[in-house]
Amino acid sequence: MEVFINGIGAISPQDSLDGLNMEALPVLVNSSEVKSIEPVYKNYINPGKARRMSRMVKMGVTAALKALQESEVAMPDAIITGTAMGCLDDTEKFLNAIIDNDEQLLTPTAFIQSTHNTLGAQIALLLACHNYNFTYVQRAFSFENALLDGLMKLSEGDAQNVLIGGHDDMTSGFYTLYDRLGYWKKEVGEDLLMSKSKGAYSGEGAAFFTLASKSSSTSYAKVLGVDMLYKPTNTDEINSWVRAFLDAKNIEPSEIDLVLYGINGDSRFYPTFEEVKEAVFAEQASGYFKHLSGEYATSTSFAMYLTANMLKKQFVPDYVLTSAIRPKSLNRVLILNGSRNENYSLTLLGKC
To answer: Which intervals hold domain Beta-ketoacyl synthase-like N-terminal (predicted)?
Structure first.
């Protein structure tokens, strides 16, 4: 069956909540600890309730409410979120309090708000929604599994409208820890396509989508499929997996108008995307997105936000393209994301 994206809300390093202005120059993510552009939350959330929310919860709730508002859905049949790290800010507050207070007289608030399902629960509380509510925590596959679950709920007829989202935030503690593990770049201002250094630029964001079994006047795009591959042994395995994904849908590589790669500027992993491009999509237009979002576990949600907007507007900005080839039309866009040569995912979107 067909599944439509009827509403979107996204908060990211771009000014994205009220729709992406594709003709304006973007904010390039080319430095450390880039933060999202946050809205005035009182325009979306009751200030009294927002005061008790962490930054990540406010970002996620606002994005979710925006997606529901756009799709004109008051009550979703399911709320499904994906996050690798949960609400890190509150996690760090609670752990620091344990140390500072010598494990005595701890308030439970920060712990309660740090769990991975905090955002999904908060959305349900605000909506008074007692329907299916699930949070997926599978590192770089978190959002993809949330999307897959949403597609299954719709295809099985268990739901008519499903709210799905992916979110992860960046804190100074998390940045420092992962910097020691070699995740981030030391240099500032590098072009991700030309970079010869190790590491990526960190990012964060929250993106929510209202999926439905029927299209509407607000529809952005169709979700045609999602798949994941864990720890491929070599690039040939990735190429075979990509071809098998397209074969299952009776689609030739030549029928993909644009391939959006998860290039993050890390010289250790960039060649893999180039090899897939040359082997499978040599004649197709190509682009990238992590210079707009930064690197984080659920960055596919931002890529899906970007792709849905391009399909709806039938326009690909120059700052997205990495090839001299421009798509002649925009009917199908394939997102190929990857995380440290371990987690690869494919998300296929189509024009409504």
So the answer is: 41-179
